[in-house]
Amino acid sequence: MSGTNGNGHQPAEAVGAVLVCGAGITGIQASLDLAESGFKVYLLDSSPAIGGRMAQLDKTFPTGDCAMCILSPKLVECARNKNIEILTLADVEGISGVPGNFKVKIRQRPRYVDVDKCNACGDCTEACPVELPSEFDRRLGTRKAIFRPYPQAIPNVFGISKAEGRAPCKSSCPAGVNAQGYVALIAAEKFKEAYELIRERCPLPAACGRVCQHPCEDHCNRGEIDQAVAVRDLKRFAADYIEFNPDQYPPAKPADKKLDAKVAIIGGGPAGLTAASDLALRGYGVTLFEAQPHLGGMLRYGIPSYRLPREVLDKEIQYILDLGVEAKTGTPVGDPKKLLEDGFKAVFAAPGAWVSRKLGIEGEDAEGVWAGLDFLRRVNSGETPAIGPKVVVIGGGDVAMDAARCALRLPGVELVQLACLESRAEMPAHSWEAAEALEEGVVFHDSAGPTRIETSDGKVTGVAFRKCVSVFDENKRFNPKFDDSRTGRLAADTVIVTIGQGIDAAGLGVETGPGGRIVADRDTLATGIPGLFAGGDAVLGPASMVDAMAQGHKAAEAIDAFLRGGKVASAQASVQAETASNPRPDAPRQERVKMPQAEAAARVRDFGEIDHGYSVEQAVAEAKRCLACGLCSECMQCVKACSAGAVCHEQQATEMEIDAGSVILTPGFEEFQASLRGEFGHGRYANVLSSVQFERMLSAAGPTGGHVERPSDGGAVKRIAFVQCVGSRDAARGNGYCSSICCMSATKEAMVALEHARGQQLEISIFCMDVRAFGKEFDSYVNRARDEQGVKYIRAIPSRVIEMPDTKDLRVRYFDAEGKEEQQEFDLVVLSVGMRVPESLRKMAGRLGLDLNEFGFAKTERLAPQASSKPGLYVAGAFQEPKDIPESVAQASAAAACAMDQLAAVRGNLIERREYPWERDTTDEAPRVGVFICHCGQNIASVIDVEQVAKKAAGMPNVFHAEASLYTCSDTNQQHIKDMIAKHRLNRLVVASCSPRTHEILFQETLRESGLNQYLFAMTNIRDQCSWVHKDDPVAATAKAVDLMAMAVGRARHLKALPTGQLPVTASALILGGGLAGMTAALGIADQGFEVHLVEKEPALGGQLRNIHSTLEGADVAAYLRGLVAKVQAHPKINVYLNTTPASIAGHVGNFKSVLNVAGHELPIGHGVVIVATGGQERPTELYLHGRNPHVTTQSKLEAALAGGKLPPELEGKANPTVVMIQCVESRNDEHTYCSRVCCSEAVKNALEIKRRLPKANVVVLGRDIRTYGFRELYFQKAREEGILFVRHPEKSDPEVTEGNGRLRVRVHDASSNRELLLAPDLLVLSTGIAPAAGNPVLSGLLRSALTADGFFLEAHPKLRPVDLANEGEFLCGLAHSPRSMDETIAQAQATVGRATTVLSKAHLEIPGQVAKVDPENCVACATCVKVCPYGAPMINDLKKAEIQGAKCMGCGSCAAACPARTIGLQHQEDDALVAMLDELLVGGGVSA
Amino acid sequence: MSYVFFPGCSLDGTAKDFHRSTLAVASRLGLELPELKDWICCGSTAAHSTDPLLADALPAHNLFAVGGQTVAVACAACYSRLKMANHHIAGDAAVRAKVARVVGGDYDGLTPVRHLLEILCQDIGRARIAKAVSRPLKGLKVACYYGCLLSRPPEVTNFDDAENPTLMDQLMATAGATPVDWPHKTECCGASFSITDASIVLKLSDQILGMAQAAGVDCIATACPLCQLNLDMRQKDIEKRYERKYNLPVFYFTQLLGLALGCTPQEVSLESLVVEPYDLLESKGICGAEARR
Questions:
Q1: Which of A225, A684, A687, A808 to mutate to test binding with chain B, by most B CBs within 10 Å of its CB?
Q2: Which residues on B lie below 8 Å from A678 (Cβ)?
Q3: Which of A34, A414, A1136, A1420 is 20 to 30 A from A899 in CA distance terms?
């Protein structure tokens, strides 16, 4: 790529914006740091909300914080930050350009909800009938098709899930009836809505629900699993429901808007009726001409009433007539052209197919031979044709079945036989029709071709047949072949011939085609005569009712277009939408609910209806079988429910291009699919859960409300097994790496489960290979779980999980410590699933040309962990390597720093700065309060009488305006509030709505934009703590809301304008420690143009790095160090102070004043931030003869000895020496409980190096666990493959080292073989671990910053503020934080750069108004405030009075509460305002009863 | 559809009923299974526990003779041996060369080997079989038992889902029966320890029968001559030794499928089962009294 130079040199056209891809906690942190440092940020995520995987967690380890409670403020911060533009449902399609100036192509999928209009009231979700498995809860629970992943989601708006295609039931319906929609509505017991939806495309629901041939059911995806959903029967149910509850459905009424044009329709069958209904609803005057005495066509005269009762049909027809349709029955139309001449603007001819085909054999004209349709017409008209006792029906179609079954019901008939050409399997009748006919006693004779109707005296006596061998030829054409040698005869006195229908359209004077069908355009139904349209059976040939209705719709649309445009609209090819596939092929089998039917014996007695219809319970149960293939059913209930008009089903995907100077990739990970480890039965056994599912189960917001239960039966859980490394450390499945978090996460889940059990019996076993608790404070957490809570860590990976068929208990099979096969039963098995890279991410990397490692993670170098293979693109978080939250957050800030590095020159260019009008001075004004009460859609208003609350407010003293509004937070309403402030000259604002946490700042902005101080605002929550919790008592809830509102008004009257202070920032950093951490941080900050004071106590730079020579991967660390030192020393912005220590550190963020002790001289400096990078040291030891036997050494000495191609003297010249390494020397014991994190990898590194040089050397590593996390695991694997032995010894059973006869002897208990091993090493290497720096306590005092029990610096928050110290403007990295490896130190050091620039990049820092203030009058300088303040804000000043440093004050009020002289007040929370609130509540203040 | 059928020794001896019912099912479905001419033993357990070359050469001799057509196998042990030989020969040129010397020709290890279950479910397909079912096995609850050889090792046999195979379950469902999910589908029955140390078989087979009983099935369907033999012939011994009552008929899946396809009990050799199935089949209305002879 030309123009690219990797040295960070600034191209002129650089863009001051950064794209962050992936909005989990890593992306969020990176975005916040960038935005706070003066860059515009695009924060993109492919899901509908930001928050990523952390939002799914219940608690975090090891502190047990509620994950959502600590994440949510960050989410809100992102939403509030004007310089972070959140792009959800978005994917990066491609990146072009050069570092500093990229063009990024982005595709955004539709949300189907307008983000600007949605107020997140949730009314749509209430209305949505479609329940889908919740991905967020990993299918343990359900959600609606319109949804928000979780309540705290940002953007706080809803969205709709739609499948790629439409549900097959819907796309296969010729008439376009939304089958999935009405089935979903029935499942949700919204029967009236279901009926309305059906009616939109089906004017005859009750008839269609009885006789439709339901192509929808033939295409139903449920058919693959068991049987199709009974879509038709459910339609009938909806119609029946309205029939029994007529009050729920309005009677038909003619269209409001009448059009002049009149339309004639010929034929009152389903096609004609549908067209009539559609046209009448559009306002046309419609006249129906019907040759028969009644409307209904084939529905009336073709279909027997036991399938479709006459009164059902009559009612539906009447409904259509009530729309204003005029019917002329008994009126055949000879010439449709005449109708056009008579003033009809258009004519639709749908006369049907009424001619019965003839057999063309001898005797067909005899007495007793009936044409099928004639016979049915007579019967269906209520006549009783006289037919004989022995009836033979010829034909095998549905008409034949109807004829046979009708005949059976007639008096005097004894035997009905049916003969057809086809074999039983080929019969054209629907199988259920044939089955019912058989049940009723019709005798079938298949493969029979009639040859002659036998007669006597002109009357039928029987039918002669010959065997039909085949009906169709190879081309599937009707071409019957007979075997004349095989003949038969059926005695008969009546023969009914039902072998097909023809069309008689000759009289209509229109062009006809094959079979006498009318010729009409396929799409518009236009005939050759302008204005004459034709459809139905007369055009299609005999078809089904639903086909006829489809033709009716088409005719109505075509006629409407013709009449509007004066001509027929151009033929529109019907768009065949893609059909959705089965979304849940693994859904459990569940038999279809059979519709109750009359017994066969009873039903042949009369023509009463056979099917009895579903009960409500049956219908709902059947409807719930629907798989919701289209996901959203497009029933439009959400559109109706949304008062804000935000739902938009027509939204399309959009493409956009943005300019960004750098790109940060933080796309995260997905969990391993647990079912791939088939032996554990995930997905097969109900009580086997993935760890993510279990996490959701533990969450109070999860599917069980935090209740731990067996999914199989909801029963109590007394025994839980965790299986570790499912999808991790599994080379066979391509996941050879360690996922780094699972040991701790399982321990945490165990601890939380035990907490939930609250003393109930609960035993937890964790099956694992190693316990990898390598992080800060992790080991003590595991020890607590094991020693105090009794969690068992069993060193075995089960071979199999078996579900006991009767109890659904799970039997876990494994080998115990004795090596014996053991089987133990559990209620729940949790599989700790590892992290992996989703396929979609690999594809994205491919599009961007990004190099990935063998597992699909971003390829990075240990010494530049954030740099991707493409310059200008940085990575952070789990996509770089599996890691936990603090490491991800640190990398986030580090990546932000790297991204800024390119763009320092254009910092601030694209930042939006809010300009506010001049603030109005309200000091002397009397309070004029405006009160706004929010409906929040239905959220508040459905419980609380908001108008009443507003009325009460209006009556309060000082209130000059009060109103209730639908959504107080909407954009339009902000303008309205401003207008009201101007109109009534308001100077206080009260809003009673939702949570100040999310909305306070919005209203404060509105105040500022109106020229009012933002502190003149009081908010009260009448939703979360009122309408939501008092749903059942609206009266009391309203009273409470009035009280809350009144208290807010009371407070508002006493609110004072508070100034926001400004502090100038000294744009330089003090960095303590000149090792890897300090130098990395110094270069990062200096490269961005800020001055750095780098302080090192030693006479040279380098720190611990001087003792490291290579990385596990083989990089040359010494060379790296030399380069680093040279760069630091040459940098013009870095002042290096060697032999220097800090003497004092005073001041606060933005403005520190410190004194350095430079080789004995005091040097005062000013700086804006402090970075602690003071490192650590190797722990000294005297254990295992160290210092007494020359052949006992440490890993770092061994590494030094191995560096530069040398060998330690013990190994020199020996072919197969024995080297023994002992892990955890002076670590993880009672004195030093923590793990030093790096020693296992160091041991593996050195062991591999020995093996490389001396392949026959015996290298044995003794330890309790091997903690080679992340990709370090690959080297552990390699070490084992190279023959290095790893011997695990049990807890409290450390190896013993002795010497005798000049040789070292090591005795150790091997846990896996349960035996003592005796080793005689030539060299014994101790992994001694990392100790905190000796100077930590002193520095801790200077900074007023606490240390952990282990002696390392304590960060502000172990999860989300890993490199911040508790005091603002003070940061922490490297070994001063905790033991860590080089790449982690580099990431933390760069992270401090990202964090520090949020301060250094600002000219001023804002001090909020809500700070404590001392009235010096009464202050006796007792220093109580100094002691209680957690932030070090109070100080005793030169006047010997307490003073609060505004920059440090967090406004918590601790000092105000503790001050014995009561001379400290917390602004904005003054006593008089609180008293006023109590007055309103207790005395009743200004609210009149 | 035609395959070259390798019956193997078991189907020629102890599992004649498996052979017979296989051919009965095949003829009902229009599946042609011409027998491989002059086939020899696949080597079974004996060969691979004594001589690896012999273990590959015996199957190779048969597969080489097939000449590239697809081979159909019913016996799970034969299937396992043929697939294993293919795996070795195709994956290792040295083995291929050695085998070539024994067999007297260069066999490439690529002749496709399909088990009957794969052929029925995947090649013929459930839809075609469903059409041919004339006597659905309504109400018959079956535990489908695949044994340990069909699916293991998965990288060699590549048979269905190694941990939870369902091909036989699908076939039984197609036949109208109710396959019951149970956890011991692929446990080992003790196999040829039947000959050397029957106590192992008694213990392992007891666990399988016990789990099937706990799952509430009426009978077991098998796809391996040894499994069928151990569960059926030794059932009485197991009941005696562990003082339990099972009385679970143990069919070859071909016998049940054959019945569903309309074969007579004789056509599928029901008479050779040790645990008599007639009471069960009569109670479900699948066979009448005439089935007993």
A1: A684
A2: 161-164
A3: A1136
- From the candidates B159, B161, B164, which should be mutated to test the interface with A, based on the most A CB atoms within 10 A? B164
- Domain presence at residue B28: yes
pLDDT in tens, A214-268: 999 999 999 988 899 999 999 999 999 999 999 988 888 888 888 889 999 999 9
Are B183 and A803 inside 8 Å of each other by CB? yes
* Interface pTM, i.e. ipTM: 0.92
pLDDT number for residue A566: 59
Residue of A804, A823, A829 best to disrupt the B interface, most CBs of B under 10 A: A804
Distance from CA of A805 to the nearest CA of B (A): 5
Whole-prediction pTM: 0.89
For chain A, helix (H) and strand (E) counts, in that order, are 40, 65
Tell me: do B149 and B287 sit in the same domain. yes
Residues B267 and B203 in one domain: yes
- Predicted local confidence at residue B288, as pLDDT: 84
Q: Minimal Cα–Cα distance from B36 to chain A, Å?
A: 34
Q: Does residue B104 sit in the same domain as residue B160?
A: no
B-chain CB neighbours of A803 within 8 Å are 183
Distance between B290 CA and the closest CA of chain A, angstroms:
27
Indicate the residue of A678, A804, A805 with minimum beta-carbon distance to B163: A678
Asked whether residue B121 is assigned to any structural domain, the reply reads no
CATH of the domain at B71: 1.20.1050.140
- For residue A1, what pLDDT is reported? 37
- Say which CATH number the domain at B147 has: 3.40.50.11810
Residues of A with CB under 8 A from a CB of B: 425, 678-679, 681, 684, 802-806
Q: Tell me, letter by letter, the H, E, C secondary structure of A931-962.
A: EEEECCCCCCCCCCCHHHHHHHHHCCCCEEEE
Q: Which residues of chain B have pLDDT under 70?
A: 293
- pLDDT < 70 stretches in chain A: 1-12, 566-577, 1485-1489
Of the residues B87, B115, B143, which one is the last residue of a structural domain?
B115
Residue B164 and residue B34 share a domain: no
Domain count of the fold of chain B:
2
Cα B157 from Cα B146, distance rounded (Å): 13
Q: Answer for the pair A774, A1267: CB distance below 8 angstroms, yes or no.
A: yes
Listed residue (A1017, A1022, A985) closest to A1004, CA to CA:
A1017
**From the centroid of its chain, how far is CA A498?**
57
* Whether A804 and B183 lie within 8 Å, measured CB to CB: yes
> For residues A1394 and A1372, what is the distance between their CA atoms, to the nearest angstrom?
12
Residue B120 resides in a domain: no
> Does B183 contact chain A (CB < 8 Å)?
yes
Indicate whether B137 and B246 sit together in one domain: yes
User: What SS3 state is found at A1214?
Assistant: coil
pLDDT at A10: 46
Q: Residue B131: its chain A contacts at CB < 8 A?
A: 425
Same domain? B98 vs B131: no
- Structural domain that includes position B40: 3-115
A1291 CA: distance to closest CA in chain B (Å): 35
Given B91, B115, B139, the domain boundary residue is: B115
The answer as to whether B70 is a domain residue is yes
Q: List CB contacts (< 8 A) between B248 and chain A.
A: none
HEC string for A1094-1123? EECCCCCCEHHHHHCCECCCCCEHHHHHHH
In this structure, the answer to whether residues B133 and B274 fall within a common structural domain is yes
- In this structure, chain B runs to a length of 293
Q: Test A802 with B162 for CB contact under 8 angstroms.
A: no
Rounded Cα distance, A1079 and A227, in Å:
70
Asked if A1145 contacts A893 with a C-beta cutoff of 8 angstroms, the reply is no
Same domain, B28 and B149: no
| Inter-chain touch B164–A681, beta carbons under 8 Å | yes
The pLDDT value recorded for residue A5 is: 41
